[in-house]
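Annotated sample (chain length 216).
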Amino acid sequence: MSSPSDLQRVLDCGIVAIIRATSGDQLVNVARALYEGGIDVIEVTFTVPNVLEIISAVKKDLGKKILLGAGTVLDPETCRAAFLAGAEFVVSPSINLEVIKLCRRYSKLVMPGAFTPTEIVTAWEAGADIVKLFPADCVGPNYLKAIRGPLPQVRILPTGGVDLKTLPEFVKAGACAVGLGSQLVEKSAVESGNMDRIRDLASQYVSLMKQCRSAT
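Output written by the structure step:
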């Protein structure tokens, strides 16, 4: 099993910040801005150039202040490389049973992506700590609510389509946490080095998540 404290950290924060970019130049600063805004669970995707070096740099800069993960992990080789670079959890857009198996072996948190009820149950039975509902923007909160009816035991993290307007409905529908990419880490803010914007958005999302949870 993965570390209970790592899982609890994701559940307590309620937000997984997803960093995607065409260049890694600003990403250590982005991670720091997210942390300063109140988000301490951060995922850097393997679509970013030189991602392993970036994961190592973020880990060196922020250490245990954050729970650092790798995203878009499609195979066990990539998964192991992410762990060696300093990642504590992995996220994928799909299910790879060997990735889940490797995470179980090293007691690392794993969040595979799934869409249909069959895929969600497959991921859960294989040992997923949290199942990433992706792409959630295609179906919205009502789909999550419908899935949660027969599968209340599955921790589901919607990713895609979650923003300041839709987050309350996703939480109300039963999301254990949410994944936030470009709605939080805006491309324009990253490219211009506007860390104040990223910090401010992080703070807004953290505040809204707290409000939503207190209302449920």
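Annotation: Strands lie at 15-19, 41-45, 67-71, 89-91, 109-111, 113-114, 131-133, 156-158, 178-180.
Annotation: The first helix runs from residue 4 to 13.
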